[in-house]
Amino acid sequence: MSANKGWWVPPEGEDSVSQKFLRKTRESPLVPVGLGGCLAVAAYRIYRLKARGSTKMSIHLIHTRVAAQACAVGAVMLGAVYTMYRDYIKRIAQDPGEK
């Protein structure tokens, strides 16, 4: 038996976790942007938790959730617009004679 029993090694022919993440990032680059924006908003709002004043905790958390979701939804919308542009507008511009 090996000494590193606790480490997970992917089976032959499968990608490691980091290789899979990099591949997925290349396929859809705005997913990590949305995730990063969501985490940045959540971290900032948690940092500002002490300075919330007389606002109730539940209201502060709801505003944090809404702001984080807005980042994620914005990234999804940008990805959809980019995909539509790539699939339809760019393709039509490359094939002007064919219809």
Automatic annotation (TrEMBL):
Location relative to the cell: Mitochondrion membrane
Keywords per UniProt: Membrane, Transmembrane, Transmembrane helix
Entry keyword Ribonucleoprotein: no
Stored Pfam families: HIG_1_N
TM regions (residue ranges): 30-47, 67-85
Domain HIG1: 2-94
GO annotations of cellular component type: mitochondrial membrane
InterPro entries in the record: Hypoxia_induced_domain (IPR007667), RCF1 (IPR050355)
Gene Ontology biological process terms, A to Z: mitochondrial respirasome assembly
UniProt-recorded name of the protein: HIG1 domain family member 1B isoform X2
